Amino acid sequence: MKFNKTSIEILSLAVVQGWNALTAIIILPKALIGLGAEAYATFALAESIVMLLVPLVVYSYDFYGVKVVASQKTPADSLCAVRNFFPVAIYSKALLSLLVSVVLVLLTVFVFPLKLQYLPPLLLILVGAALQQNWLFLSLRRNFALAVCITLVRGPLLVVLWMYLSDYSHGGVFAFLYGVMYAAAGLASTIYAVVVYKLKIRPPGFAAIGGSLRSGFTVFLSGFSVSFYRGTGVFFLTVFGASSEAVSIYSLFEKFAKAIQATTRPISQYFYPRIVELSVNDGNFQRNGFKLYYKFIVPQLAFLLTLWVLFVAGFSWLSEYYLRSWLTLPQSIIALALGSMLFANVFGCLNFSLGTGVLNALGREKELLKSVGVTAVASLGVSVLSIYSFSEAGAFFAFAFGEVLLFAIIALRLSRATHSQSGDER
Fold first, then answer.
1. Max CA-CA distance within the chain?
2. Binning pLDDT at 50, 70 and 90, where does residue 248 land?
3. What is the pLDDT of residue 359?
């Protein structure tokens, strides 16, 4: 029974991540054809900016909230912690969403009215991020309910998006429907949580909001830095005057890679509360926690590589019948794109497990922040130089470079921590 429940929870997390993957693989290639390369490149730029700032809205609540709830000793205490923390999380995220949205609207109206014309309707993505409380379902191990809420909302809206797209689709309408898909899913999951767990949405006060923001600031900076160096390819390609076709194709490949990698995260997410419990209750966490976590890294990588084999096997069909005239890049660039995205996925999977998972659970948030900070600075420098010199080929290289560098730094820090623990025991 325990195994069945675990399987259902992991599958539910996969469904939550899978909707993002389906959107990337099914909707976006058709959007490229329906909107045209120029309009799609404008949409891709606006969407990449919004997605770049989603971590600013989510902040660190998906990890800090889990840590608060998972550290409780009994299920009753956990539910009490959820009820106390829920108003803080949702009001804090709503405030962050409002501030980010105001800045982006002003940027659109007064600075880049043409380049960012599709940005305002895409701000609904930030609304969805503010409303969807993943930490709540994850910490209570009720991910099946979250998966059902998201499926019931995003499934029909995905069909609507598919039916809308044609050779004469309007980018503004598409951007609005795209944003509604995220906002509606977040609203549905919040309504479910409020009704089922009898949550109150009373204003928590600025002191409580400020305290939660300060407590999760280090974890937030780490996550935001990762998002920042991963998501600047489209921006720099646009800045340096790459063609609309190059921007569009890079954006698609980036979405494919992120979608595939996201499907491997449910195992890490499901066992993150267990890692936190061990770090709180077991003084020998490094000896026990690492063994618990490492045995789930291999299945993640095996699943990831399987997905890539399937994706590459179907890529000839995708390019021949789906993207047709838009896939005009040389074969060498396409091979570089596939290879670099595969490298980024493998090392990104390891970074999420060992960095976001283990280092945070160990209470080494500052070490993770330093690692990500060094990676972000180095990656931005490499991105600017490589994209300026080699356009889309440089963007693909820079995307993989950041993940490989971050893995090297994290592995070095964990190695030192393990040796230090071994020395203390002796």
1. 71
2. confident
3. 74
User: Quick check: 91 and 203 in contact, CB under 8 A?
Assistant: yes
CA–CA distances in Å: residue 282 to residues 160, 219, 286: 50, 22, 9
Residue 203 CA to residue 361 CA, distance in Å, equals: 29
Domain-embedded: residue 385 = yes
Considering its fold, how many domains does the chain have in total? 2
Q: Is residue 423 part of a domain?
A: no
Domain span at residue 336?
A: 217-418
| Residues 149, 18 contacting (CB under 8 angstroms) | no
Q: Where are the alpha helices (DSSP H) in 59-115?
A: 61-70, 75-110
> 27 is written with which tokens?
């909707």
Say which DSSP state 322 is in. I
Rounded CA separation 329/246 (Å): 8
Q: Is 203 left (phi over 0), alpha (psi -120 to 50) or beta?
A: beta
Q: 318 and 201 in one domain?
A: no
Instruction: Choose among 55, 69, 223: nearest CA to 142.
Output: 69
Straight-line distance from the first to the last Cα atom of the chain, in angstroms, rounded to the nearest whole number: 41
Q: pLDDT for 135-154, tens place per residue? A: 899 888 888 999 999 999 99
- Both 185 and 249 in a single domain? no
Domain end (from 215, 245, 277): 215
Query: Can you give the pLDDT at residue 171?
Result: 85
DSSP single-letter state for residue 73? S
Rounded mean pLDDT, 307-314: 76
**CA-to-CA distance for 117 and 322, rounded, in angstroms?**
27
Question: Is the distance from CB of 135 to CB of 62 less than 8 angstroms?
Answer: yes
As a whole number of angstroms, the distance between CA 125 and CA 261 comes to 20
**Encoded tokens for 252:** 């698609």
Dihedral, CA of residue 382, residue 225, residue 392 and residue 349, to nearest 10 = 100
